[in-house]
Design a protein that fits this description.
heterodimer, A: 272 residues, alpha/beta, six-stranded mixed β-sheet, three-stranded antiparallel β-sheet, 9 helices, 38% helix, globular, B: 251 residues, mainly alpha, binds adenosine-5'-triphosphate, binds magnesium ion
Chain lengths: 272, 251
Amino acid sequence: MTSLASIAASPPGSFDESRRTAPHVTIRGLSKRYPDAVIYDRFDFDIPRGKLISVFGPNGCGKSTLINMIAGLVPADAGEVLFDGRPLSRVKFGYVFQNYREALFPWLPAFDNIAYPLKVMGVPKAERKQRVERLVARLGVKIDLSLYPYHLSGGQQQLVSIMRALIVEPEILFLDEPFSALDYEMTLFMRDQLQRVFMETKTTTVLVSHDLEEAVYLSDYVLLLSRHPARVVEFVPYDAPRPRTDKTLSEPGFIATKARCLKLFQQEVRRG
Amino acid sequence: MKIPNALLPLVGVAMLLAIWGLTVALRLVDPVLLPSPLATFRTLWEGMLSGKLGVDFLKTVMRTISSTAIAAVIAIPLGILLGSSEKLYRSVEFLIDFFRSTPASAMFPLFLVLFGVGDRTKISVAAFGAALVILFNVAYGVMNARKTRLLAAKVMGASRTRVLFDVMLLESLPQTFVGLRNGVSLALVIIVVAEMFIGSTDGLGQRVFEAQQLFDMPGMYAAIFAAGALGYTLNLLFLLIERRFVHWAGR
Ligand SMILES: Nc1ncnc2c1ncn2[C@@H]1O[C@H](COP(=O)(O)OP(=O)(O)OP(=O)(O)O)[C@@H](O)[C@H]1O
Ligand SMILES: [Mg+2]
């Protein structure tokens, strides 16, 4: 009662977003089947606000299908997904594909690639330029954005993809194995770039990863899925302070969390 | 002996000229049938600069370009339309493949009836052949647009028309240029054949044919080389345009 009263008493517009604790995305009764398998059968889940969650699970269990259904790329057979009670059509979101080579537009320089979503929204040219420049400054990106994507390295291209997803100031960001096509060194670098982006923007982020170390290292929670039909095996929290660094990887908390996830994962795989 | 890579293509040319010159010098072939390279290229040079050959060359260029242009204007929009709907394309695919496989030269009599003896017949048969080639390539280019790229545009909220113009159209450009290059080559073939056989008074085809009839061998070879140079140049021209506008192709 007291909290209700205090909210009611505070002047309109002064509500502190960070105190909001209701889930950001509510998934209810989500079902999806393909001719040869039921991938989801009345799946329920809540995605917390302002957190980075990783989705981890056996090969082919439906990780991509999950975020694609949430993001509207794949139609669900049944169920609903609401963002603060609103449907997807009223939500600005960003999506980063695994295959950056095929996701960027090779006929546009990197800068115009990043600005493209704003163009679609009808933002005038001068403002587009300003907003891209602001984002670049904010993320401390050091890439020559006048280059075409095919002149950038894989990591740089994926960074451009991420910026293209962020330019609309999305309330939620989806990434489907964004670094798995990069070499190891670049992957390490990009993890820290993503962490930086997250710390900077606090955007609710859903990351599909096939690398458990990466999943734990980056996230506030790891969503462990079972084989299909996918259920939530466990929603494992990991609350080490950010920025996390190489040192984090050898801390007991990290090791314990990773071991726990691995154990659950192996149990799940053995159940076959 | 080390030859710089840039000069390698010239090696073949030099070899051909050497063999040709030697054949003539040793009188291995009747000199009436095979004039010397020098005589041939002199005829080519003089014919192009001041003689009738230059006029014929320009005529053939004009016809080839007009038929390709007509073909492109019709086939590119149509190809985009067909390619953007898989169903639509599948329903006319057989027709396109059938007429694409029909030798365009078999259409001459029909077009003669329709347009009479003259430029209109030549240009329209060539345009017909080229249009089918271009149409097929454009439609395929549009249909094979990368799924991820289309999805990416969709996720960003692009409407269907925007996806068509901002993504599909550009995605299909490399394939469109393949179509244009094949189309212009085919148009040239058809135009030259038409100039030879359907009552033409000018053009490279007519020039080759007439020289042969008059037993003017240097003139005939000169006209053949002029036609070859034309075909090569047209192809090169389209390649250069493609490099300029489709800088991302193949990367
Ligand atoms: N279009 C489709 N038609 C038929 N089956 C499909 C289709 N898309 C996905 N599947 C199947 O649905 C299951 C889940 O696919 P999904 O791509 O979501 O898995 P994933 O967990 O992302 O796998 P991965 O680890 O390989 O990325 C897989 O078994 C896959 O074979
Ligand atoms: Mg996947």
